[in-house]
Design goal:
Protein name: H15 domain-containing protein
Subcellular location: Chromosome; Nucleus
Keywords: Chromosome, DNA-binding, Nucleus
Number of helices: 5
Strand order of the largest sheet: 1-2
Strand content: under 5%
CATH topology of one domain: Arc Repressor Mutant, subunit A
Radius of gyration: 27 Å
Shape: extended
GO molecular function: double-stranded DNA binding; nucleosomal DNA binding; structural constituent of chromatin
CATH superfamily of one domain: Winged helix-like DNA-binding domain superfamily/Winged helix DNA-binding domain
Family: Belongs to the histone H1/H5 family.
Structural class: mainly alpha
Distance between the termini: 12 Å
CATH architecture of one domain: Orthogonal Bundle
CATH class of one domain: Mainly Alpha
Length: 180
């Protein structure tokens, strides 16, 4: 005897048969204010440690971690490991931190230093010497307006597509696990 056919169950009422959304989106819940931490951000603590551990060869991640734990006992030692790794890689990418010539390593391994300020001041002085101070403002405003309109359109399509796919997936999973 063949198995009984199960009627399709529609649990998700947000999607009509055409695939368009019928219910209006719910307003986001109010977020609880986060309490201020007893220590500065990880990047600021790293910069402070590098200044204090001032070494020509740079300082290792382990030395930086030890300094932060000594100076800020309220920092969670387990979480600091991951936050420090992220801060070091981000600092290298953004240019806030540099590696000395003798350092070999990638990511959060090796040695780190704060870059010399003389080079950055010279570059900024040369760049601002021949430029029109008002030219950049108009371009920034235009780019910001275009970017916000693109982001709003992208969010709407991404949210609606995500909701449709979620409902479809729920319906098919229920069909698989429903009793025959």
């Amino acid at each position: 005897m063949p198995p009984k056919k199960v009627k399709s169950l529609r649990l998700c009422s947000a999607v009509s048969s055409t695939g368009s959304l019928t219910d209006p989106p719910k307003p986001p819940k109010a977020r609880v204010a986060r309490k201020a931490s007893a220590h500065p951000s990880t990047m600021e603590m790293v910069k402070e440690a590098l200044k204090a551990l001032d070494s020509r060869k740079g300082s290792s991640a382990q030395a930086i971690r030890g300094y932060i734990l000594d100076k800020y006992p309220s920092v969670d030692a387990v979480r600091l490991k991951y936050m420090l790794r992220k801060a070091l890689t981000k600092g290298i990418e953004s240019g806030d931190l540099v590696r000395p010539a003798n350092s070999s390593g990638n990511g959060a391994q090796g040695r780190f230093r704060i870059p010399a300020k003389s080079k950055t001041k010279e570059i900024k002085a040369k760049a601002s010497e021949n430029t029109d101070p008002n030219a950049g403002r108009a371009l920034k405003a235009e780019k910001a307006a275009v970017k916000t309109s693109k982001v709003q359109e992208g969010e709407q399509t991404a949210v609606s597509l995500l909701e449709v796919m979620t409902c479809w997936l729920l319906d098919h999973v229920l069909l698989l696990f429903s009793p025959m």
